[in-house]
Write a structure and sequence with these properties.
With 474 residues, the protein is α+β, with helices and mostly antiparallel strands. Helix content is 15%, strand content 36%. The strands form three sheets. Strands 1, 6, 7, 8, 9, 10, 12, 13, 15, 16, 20 and 21 form a twelve-stranded antiparallel sheet that branches. Strands 2, 3, 4, 5, 11, 14, 17, 18 and 19 form a nine-stranded antiparallel sheet that branches. A five-stranded parallel sheet has the order 22-23-24-25-26.
Length: 474
């Protein structure tokens, strides 16, 4: 939540009617002047950017282009138009996290890049440079039309060497992998340890999910990621044949497109955190600073805490999600757990298996309309358990495992959150095990990105916290 204190912004340079051929290229520097991002054109009018640290390249000149359905590629014959450079300094207060106050100090540049020839389609580019890294994003204006279908975003990151990389494969549905340590040139799904996942769709075999972290030969640490992923597909990074260039590769929709948007539209930030140590990457607030401000006026109900739950016994095979003799979610067992949680200082209890539908669990694909998110399973009384928890000072965490039948969940979501609000349940664990319904969509694609956001919006309206499983990256 960005309550800004002493926040200052100044526009240092504003050029009207000037282009890169007349003046210096658009650029921005970090407050400590160590990092700089610069945008430029090559001899074919392709847009490039580079990132330097103390005058030495961290990201060599790298092209940016887009492929839009039923339109020519936006790639060559471009012109850099007006641009402004500025800086900002301030701090804001978080709702929850490692640090209460976050410093937000950066240099910035905002420029328009357009086609020299008609129809002069333009993209506005905004970049911010912090002491710990850079972020940049694109805005499509109505020179492209009322809406567009993006078939490919080609943001490239040209490395300065064959860095050591810590990575997981580019999977459109899962982040559940061990991280691999190899050279960038050795990134290959054949070198990764894979798992038998309920839902897994691997992308290019030489591609990675973000964040991907690297160490240069000079001992500098880099982490490539994105911020403010809103109404867009998640970004993976593909290693090109030269083994030192990474290219953005968006998760596809069921029809193969990458994002369908109404204009004007602003993409997520493409981010590079830069530090002299792994700790420096961990301590960075760059992603948080680039995410949008919190819009909730009252955040007093957001109170994270420890919890225990009826679920681990399911994994150990001692109990089951399904009701019956071995079913773990019973009213009696829930009360026993509540007593233990109360005695040992756990403020919350998660109960998996409380609702109807678990008798069909484990047989993929699950039948349509398997789960109810408002009806109790046999031998479980939700209202009674919640009331007993209130007596003992233990709040219940609801469980909404959708089995990735997202269309069915969306039909029930309003009633499910109404029930939680009525009973005073303040948190829910969501789950998306299995292939997404509607068929062909992916966990990390635009359709699901928007679904996850709808869940958070509905949860906030009902003052319910979300423990997200099988999520999209924040």
């Amino acid at each position: 939540m960005k309550h800004l204190f002493g926040f200052l912004f100044s526009s240092l340079l504003i050029f009207s009617g000037c282009t890169a051929s007349m003046i210096d290229n658009p650029a921005a520097s970090s407050p400590n002047k160590a990092l700089e991002i610069e945008f430029m054109l090559d001899e074919e009018g392709r847009l490039l950017y580079q990132v330097t640290r103390n005058g030495t390249a961290v990201i060599a000149p790298s092209p940016i282009s887009f492929v839009v359905k039923d339109q020519p590629n936006w790639e060559k014959g471009l012109v850099i138009g007006d641009f402004s450079e500025g800086n900002a300094a301030g701090e804001w207060e978080t709702v929850w996290g490692e640090d209460r106050l976050i410093q937000e100090n950066y240099g910035s540049v905002y420029t328009t890049v357009y086609e020299a020839q008609a129809p002069h389609r333009a993209i506005n580019i905004e970049a911010r440079v912090f002491d710990d890294g850079v972020g940049f994003r694109y805005t499509f204006e109505k020179s492209w039309g009322e809406s567009i279908i993006i078939m490919d975003e080609r943001t490239q990151f040209t490395l300065t060497g064959d860095h050591t990389a810590w990575w997981i494969p580019a999977d459109f549905d899962s982040y559940e992998f061990f991280y691999n340590e190899t050279k960038v040139s050795e990134i290959d799904v054949d070198n990764a340890q894979l798992f038998d996942l309920n839902s897994s769709t691997l992308g290019d075999k030489h591609a990675v999910n973000t964040p991907v972290t690297m160490k240069t030969g000079e001992g500098l640490y880099l982490s490539f990621h994105e911020a403010n992923l809103t109404n867009y597909s998640g970004m993976t990074l593909r290693v090109e044949d030269d083994k030192r260039t990474l290219t953005s590769s968006l998760v596809p929709a069921a029809d193969g497109s990458k994002a369908t948007v109404s204009l004007p539209f602003t993409t997520p930030w493409r981010t590079i955190r830069i530090a002299e140590s792994p700790a420096g990457l961990m301590e960075s607030h760059l992603i948080m600073n680039l995410n949008e401000d919190n819009v909730l006026e009252d955040v007093s109900w957001i109170q994270p805490g420890k919890y225990m739950g009826i679920w681990w016994g399911h994994h150990l095979g001692k109990t089951t999600w399904a009701p019956g003799e071995t079913g773990g979610a019973t009213t009696e067992e829930a009360m026993r757990y509540i007593d233990f949680a109360s005695e040992h200082g756990f403020p919350s209890l998660l109960i998996e298996g409380w609702n109807i539908g678990w008798d069909k669990w484990g047989s993929w694909p699950l039948p349509p309309k398997t789960f109810s998110f408002t009806k109790d399973a046999p031998n479980f009384n939700l209202q009674e358990v919640v009331a007993y928890g209130n007596e003992k000072g233990v709040g219940l965490i609801a469980h909404h495992e959708t089995a990735s039948d997202v269309t069915e969940y969306e039909e029930q979501m309003e009633d499910a959150f109404d029930l939680m609000q009525e009973l005073g349940i303040r948190a829910v664990k969501t789950g998306y095990v299995g292939p997404i319904v509607p068929t062909g969509e992916h966990h990390h694609g635009q359709w699901m990105v928007n679904h996850y956001r709808r869940v958070l919006k509905l949860a906030a309206e009902h003052e319910v916290m979300v423990v997200a499983h099988e999520p999209i990256k924040p």
